[in-house]
Amino acid sequence: MYSPWKSNILGVVIRAWMFNSGFYESLSDRVEISTPLNSWKRVVEGVYLQQRSQSPYEGDVFHETPTGLLFYTYLLKLNCNVLHAVFILCDVITAIVLTEATRLFIQDIVKDQQNKLKTCHKDAKKITLKKEEVANVPQYVTAAYLLNPYIVCSCVAMTTTVFANLILSLTLLAMAKRSRLLSTFCLAFAAHQSFYPIMLLVPIAIATAKEKQLLKSVFLTTTTYAFFTSLLIWFAYLSTGSWRFIESTYGCILKVPDLTPNIGLFWYFFTEMFDHFYLFFTYVFQLNPFIYVIPLAIRFDDNVPLLSFTLCAIMAIFKSYPSIGDVGFYLALLPLWNHLVPFFRHSFIVGCIFLVTSVLSPILWYLWIYTGSANANFFFATTLAFATAQIFLLTDVLFAQAKYDYHLKHGVDLKINGKEGMLVLE
Amino acid sequence: MLNPCFAIEIVEMSPCHLSVSCARLRAVSILPVQKMKPHFKTFLLLFVVLSCVETVLATSESFSEELLIKPLPTGHVYSFFQFTTKWDVDPEETKLRHYNLFPRSVGEIIQKHSLRELHLSLTQSLWRTQKWGYPVRFAGPGAEVFATFYPHLNNDEIDSAWIGLVNSLSGLFCSSFNFVTLTNTIQPLWTFSPEGLNLGGTNASHQRYANLPREIVCTENLTPWKKLLPCESHSGLGELLNAKNMYDSNYHSLALDLRPICRDKKCQETSLELKLSLSLVSEPTVLHGNTYHGINADWSFKSIYGAHLFSSCPRAQVSKVYIDITSNLTSSTHWKLRPDPTAIFINQRGGSATHLALYDLNAVSSWPINVQASYTKKLTYGNVPPPLIHATRFVGGHGQAKGKLVTRIHNNYFSSDIDIVFLELVPWYCRVFLHTLTFRNSKNKPVGIDIPQKLYFRPGLDRQRPHHLELRLTLPADSVTEIEWEFQKGFLKWTEYPPDAHRGFDLGPAVISALLPVARNWTGTPRHVSTFDQSWNVSQSGYFVRIHTETLVVAMATPDFSMPYNVICLACTVVALAFGPLYNLTTKRQRLVLQNTIFIQFDETSYCG
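ok -> structure tokens follow
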């Protein structure tokens, strides 16, 4: 059996080596890794201003929450090596938490299938999941998280995405454990820091619903979440003494004033946007990730893991300041969909685009910013391709699940009266 | 940049113009009175009485014009024209009317925008402190404006007064002051303080400062500036201000300084002082061209200003030309002045003596005069004694993503440390990081930033206000101090770039203020006097200097300006790539159909499996 300890140790060693070899300097300035929202340099600036008894929210450099500021103030008192260790430790904890969450998720999926076996086609047994088959999936998740180059870079560049991912993984674990209180508590922290995770309220409400009491669950989940969030915001207000932080954090996330390039779709779009359409498209692009939540929740209401995975992916693709740390997070959950791989259609293309864009984007950035021989369009092209690859990957998983569900219900053969048939959506 | 040139009309109404037309009317009154009808006589009488009343009501104004010429050790000649108008009126208590010598357009600006003090300069190129010493009037490259408003105004009122002021100035001087907005304005804390009489009540929140490093200064600024002079360029030293020669120089700077001063020695009441000054550095060695006989550094009014002086301004109480002849007496260069000066005297100040030749234009008997300096020996470039403090600044780093701002300040004074105030105004799109601010000293001595109160930092806000840093440093004796901090270059919207975006963005100069213990290389006038005439042999406890460093050009990454439509289409396509499949998946049902009934479908969105 595959041992998670090996990947844990390897992951720690890689990170420790990279920290020691001074990779922080070169990685922390990479736009794919550090965005205005998660850059460590800005955190240091914020804490520095705070220590000068000057509000970091007076300027436009610091975009973390006051709660985060308090945490980072303590972190920055640590010795440099200890600080690096904290980052590594957070990544390892995230991996362990994700592993545990995946273990629970996959158990649920298997149990759910066995419950539905009666309604399934007799052929379906060929493709149903067996416990032995899925036993390794959680370990794969550990490896996929700790050895993922995106996550490794994100950790070595000391982005605050490391902490965001930790909280998000805790939310998933609490969701898998079906604990409403814990999951909304963690979610309150996650959404407090980066706003978009608020959409995970829906899978939490579904996961914690008792038999046929979805509405009640939605109400309870929303209320507890609102309670925790208002506590956090009240605490943030008390610690800074003004509401200015709302503008600096959520204002910055929603209005997208900082057009520093990143891997997302916002920066160049809004750089080139005509002024009189600016507000309209800000609304369109910000609403975009949220409009998928309810339809997807209705379509996959019996599959909370898939719904959570999808929402995490949508967040990483469509948020205003995405970084590869966010991408790495949902990529680490891919082993959950091991059984869907035969139904994937674009895995090769997606794999190629991921590889090519990851290599090309630093090169084209260099050509644009340093040598001046390329222009912004080149880098923009790689970010577009990267987003396209992510979208293909996501739709592939969703369509594969739909097809898998169909096969479970109607058998493996796609034949109508002995003639070859095919599935269409109509 | 666009220059709103609607100023000319306003300036046409300058007081000199009015007084001329007045004189014409009075001339009319001398016409044979008996020929006129009786009621016209009474009318005329009334007019005379009224003009007498006006004269009584009008408060006293005095005007002086001065020119200081100082040959510099580099072979350049520094000329400083100073036109000072003193008006015994307190604009904070009485409404300004009955303008005589004082320009009406300036007076209206003072009252409209509740101004207590105004200092502005329009400068082309950089004053080379290291080689030329200190100028009389310090000015940074480009346009610079500093104002103090009445203390009773609140912050918003001051902001709107400030915006109104810069727009008026933009019209008055035909310059780009209208590009001063709140995004490049700061409230200076220590560097700029009111220079006139301290009337109290104001603090940093009543002050505004802005600079436009990219402003180009030319004839269209000089012409309206000249019209503010009581004699314009018709007579007096104004005659020497020929645009062609002004802009053929190495450095020129127009300035306007307005401040309240003491009316008399008792200082019970205040007066308004308006000082219009023009600095010019010409290079006669270049003007003469190369000769086979070595470097010819001769200069004259004709060669520098392109004109002889035909008269003094009749309205001027003081009309004097001073020539600094110290270099003639102390170094190996020997030059002769023609015609002979009215007087030669020594100005002892702060441990240094300056020899000056004086031409009193009110005592000149034969016009025109063309003061000439002819060298008996060829000019040899000597060792330039460095000034006590000078500074340079540059941008470090490479690429268009980030950089460093580095300022090097030299303290050449052997005897003691010098305290300075350092000001830096960084535009919002250069995001500076205060925690990267470092100080290095060539002698590894501390620079005295030991307590946070010596550092003032107001971070910028995107599209709202610039970053503002002020430091109170102690420069260790005989050392070089380097101030360095890092910044990230912002990425702007395509409409926020200037037309020549690839040239880069200009950063204004850093400003260093200090009170020097000795007057070496110092040329200015003490703050409590108005004119050179009163300033000779006045010793002070310190000699104020305000050094402006170079302006910088920062290359910024630019988007492709030609393809907004393409970018909008492509980004929306990618969004649609997600929207289509997700919409189909969540709204449609799967159904099995015969394969041959399906048309060839390339569209992923309608197709599953």
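The CA atoms of residues 84 and 531 of chain B lie 7 Å apart.
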